[in-house]
């Protein structure tokens, strides 16, 4: 997904909390949490930031969702079908779904035209939707966005009647269902949208709701409260009545103490105090591991630096365009040392040698990451002292008289995440110690806790940055696309000769329909990306330790889209799950999931 770097903050800082589950007693069940990264908009058709996705997923619903095992299930669409080559998809909507306002009052029925109006907004370039690129899978979507087609009726979406919706796609897309789990395919009431204009999504009064919750209070940098939507079509499965978010700029630091004081009912336990908790008779049974996810983390290199002259951006640009310089960084990064800031006991469990995580997709039982030539990368640790120093010497020779050493490397981090700050310090010291202070000078920069993506990463105010990406749909292209020309991590340019070669490899893979051949071609493209050291794969998301009264195996499970952000289906435990209980529940869940997936494929 086009996730912001705040995704890191969300995953590593998110604090889970709640009161005891009292749904059977008739009392109100409330989940309480603290947060430090504020959202900037409620306009779900425009945003691409993870913390805003997390809110929207609970307020607005799409056509499909997933169960706790990752099996697709009906959302607002009660059924669907596609033609033989998966280019035309038809959905039958429920006829009992309501749009309500911020007070829960009925406004209109949700109808097929609402999905047409939503996509029209997303693909209208003047609205600057950050998710429009996903929606261009629809016929003429890209042409409409670029102004080559001006009549939206020529775009491949049509309301056949009030409850029948039809999509026509540019090409066969057997994974289209998985794309519908993304906000660009969410509906909007067209009349309400037109009435609000630019004010749409600016306040809780300026959106309509058809999801499990309504935004009852929205006070930025103070508090936001979600309450159960009594008009929701599937309200019986919504077990938590109220979700209360309290702002605290030091959320990551103070949460454990707030948890112990019973002011919240869950907290991430940072590595700085983890040993103390695990060795305490009073606390050890309150802590459990977090589950891994399909976010991929990597260090991105900036080929068009836009930061202050004191950090010598032009010198960095000369250096980073040299392959040996990039390879020296690639092989010098000791990822285990960095990962200890998150997982001090089993850091290898989170490491990833590839951009696409393991177990994402497979071909006839063979995992994508084990396809040649990606297989060799998957099985080899990129950290190699000898190769790092070998490439250093080659870079020094090649760049003599062209670049000035030591090369300044501006490495920003989000100041709202103490672990990110600690990890950046580890990386700074480790790289400089191995490669030498005569070669590189890593300069740390504490970026803002709120708006880090817009103020640091997107404007290019970095040399090297810890970045992340999450999948949008069940196809390898979701991980390779961000590095194509004009993609999120390829703006505005990469090294000379890179774009033409990489783009050619990706386009060849996209043109192939046979999954076996398609995935092999994508593996070749990804291997090129990594072997050229345009990116340094680092880890998968998740991990760490938490004290939480939420059961992670009750939540909806999906590697892509926003389903996993939903509270729907989750209940509140009377006490936090211990790590022993977590491991037992995880083992049972993995067996149940394997059975569920097997039954789905039969």
UniProtKB/TrEMBL annotation:
Signal sequence annotation: 1-17
Major localization class: membrane
InterPro entries in UniProt: Peptide/Ni-bd, SBP_5, SBP_5_CS, SBP_5_dom
SUPFAM superfamilies on file: Periplasmic binding protein-like II
Compartment list: Cell membrane
Record's bilayer topology term: Lipid-anchor
Keywords: Signal, Transport
Single GO MF annotation: peptide transmembrane transporter activity
Pfam families in the cross-refs: SBP_bac_5
A GO cellular-component term linked to this record: ATP-binding cassette (ABC) transporter complex
GO terms under biological process: peptide transport
Solute-binding protein family domain location: 72-489
Family recorded in the similarity comment: Belongs to the bacterial solute-binding protein 5 family.
PANTHER family, sorted: PERIPLASMIC BINDING COMPONENT OF ABC TRANSPORTER, PERIPLASMIC OLIGOPEPTIDE-BINDING PROTEIN-RELATED
Name of the protein described by the UniProt record: ABC-type oligopeptide transport system, periplasmic component
Recorded name of the encoding gene: aliB
